[in-house]
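My current task is to audit a protein record that another person submitted. Please read both lines and tell me whether the C-alpha cells look consistent with the sequence. Do not assume that whoever made the record got everything right. I have pasted the whole thing underneath without changing anything:

===
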Amino acid sequence: MELTVYLAGQIHDDWRDQVAKKAKELELPLTFVGPQTNHDRSDQIGEEILGTQPGNLYKDDAASDINNFRTQVLLQKSDIVIALFGEKYKQWNTAMDASIAIAMNKPTIIIRPQSLIHPLKELSNKANVTVETVEQALDVIRYIYE
C-alpha cells in the first residue's frame, strides 16, 4: 500500500529531501508532495498566469490564490500530513497547512523541537501525533505497515 504524504513546512532548506532519503532507506512506500519550494516561482505565479498586477498587494493576493489552490488539491489527495516546525524560520504557512489538514481530518504528524512545545501546544493537541524528529515521524508511519 503506497501512501501520499504532504510535507508542510518552510521551504528554505532541504529537509524534504532528507525525509525522502530516510523513507527510501526504510523502504517505506511513500510518495511525497508539498508546497512549491521554488520561492521565486511561488511569489511570481500570480503574475505569470494573470499578468502584471497593479501593486504588491494585488501581486501577493494573486500568487496566494494560486498557491492556496495548489495546496488544497495536494492536501486533499494526501493520506498523511507531516508539518515540520523549526527554530530558524517563521512558521506561518506551516501552521496554516497543519490547521487545514486537521480541519480536513487528515492524519497529521507535527515535528517540533522542545523549544516550541508551549507556542504549539494547541496545534499539537489537535494533531494525531507530535514528535521531535523526522526519524520519529517516519517511525510512526512505518508502524502502519507492521
